[in-house]
Design a protein that fits this description.
- This protein has 227 residues and is of the alpha/beta class.
- The chain has one domain: TIM Barrel.
- It contains 7 helices and 8 strands; from the N terminus they run βαβαβαβαββαβαβα.
- The protein has an 8-stranded parallel β-sheet.
- Helix 3 links the parallel strand 3 and strand 4.
- Helix 6 packs parallel to helix 7.
- It is globular and about 45 Å long.
- Bound molecules: D-xylitol-5-phosphate and zinc ion (ZN).
- Zinc ion binds next to strand 2.
- D-xylitol-5-phosphate (DX5) binds next to strand 2 and strand 8.
């Protein structure tokens, strides 16, 4: 599976969101990560379906997908709104619902891809039953809530164990996404362990370099890792 970067708009300039997303897509990405936080499940508040809806025409024009990461309690109340807004992939936290299977069904019934996410302290064993039902597993490599945190080193072994689990269960079509602290210095270990989608917020949108140069640096690190 090709390794892809999914820039997280959490670190983008919201006054110029469309422009910044366009720059990222012109630099070669085909997935944009939208972090939805409710101030309950995580100690921060970000954006809702309105922003997904605002990005959708651009996604259609430029041909990228909207990867929506729900860090919210009671996700069942909002899934349909995000589907209507134009999400292509919806990811829910295993910690946020007692009825994960029903949530995955709800997402699939909207005709889009479903992902499940694990916080750093959540065991891969929680995936045991749901794994065959999902399109993607998102391994959090920071505690969710904020951009710009450091990659938690034990995430690498967790990704590797997940990859092994997928191989053993003949489920290698499932994507492994990693989120938090991804930068050129951490790309290699995440990719070697088996991650196929790398979420990157502060490593893409920052004042140190252009969005395009930042994406190139991440692409170079991916190229190193896959050789
Ligand atoms: C954290 C979010 C991440 C965040 C990553 O709760 O889920 O997607 O934007 O930011 P960086 O890449 O800066 O760690
Ligand atoms: Zn995220």
């Amino acid at each position: 599976m090709k390794v892809r970067i999914a820039p997280s708009i959490l670190s983008a300039n919201f006054l110029r969101l469309g422009d910044e997303v366009r720059q990222a897509v012109e630099a070669g990405v085909d997935l944009i990560h939208v972090d939805v936080m409710d101030g309950h499940f995580v100690p921060n508040i970000t954006v809702g379906p309105l922003v997904v809806k605002a990005l959708k025409p651009l996604a259609q024009e430029l041909g990228f997908e909207l990867d929506v990461h729900l860090m919210i309690d009671n996700p069942e109340l909002f899934i349909d709104d995000f589907i209507r807004a134009g999400a292509d992939l919806l990811t829910v936290h295993v910690e946020a619902s007692t009825h994960l299977h029903r949530l995955v069904q709800q997402i699939h019934s909207g005709g889009i891809k479903a992902g499940v996410t694990l916080n750093p302290a959540t065991s891969l064993t929680t995936l045991e039953e749901i794994l065959p039902e999902v399109d993607l597993v998102l391994v959090m490599s920071v505690n969710p809530g904020f951009g710009g945190q450091s990659y938690i080193p034990t995430s690498t072994a967790k990704i590797a164990r997940l990859k092994q689990m997928l191989i053993e269960r003949d489920l290698s079509h499932i994507e492994i996404e990693v989120d938090g602290g991804i930068a050129p210095a951490t790309v290699e270990e995440a990719v070697r362990a088996g991650a196929t989608i790398l979420v990157a917020g502060s490593a893409v949108f920052n004042s140190k370099a252009t969005i395009s140069d930042n994406i190139k640096a991440l692409e170079n690190a991916i190229a190193q890792a896959v050789t």
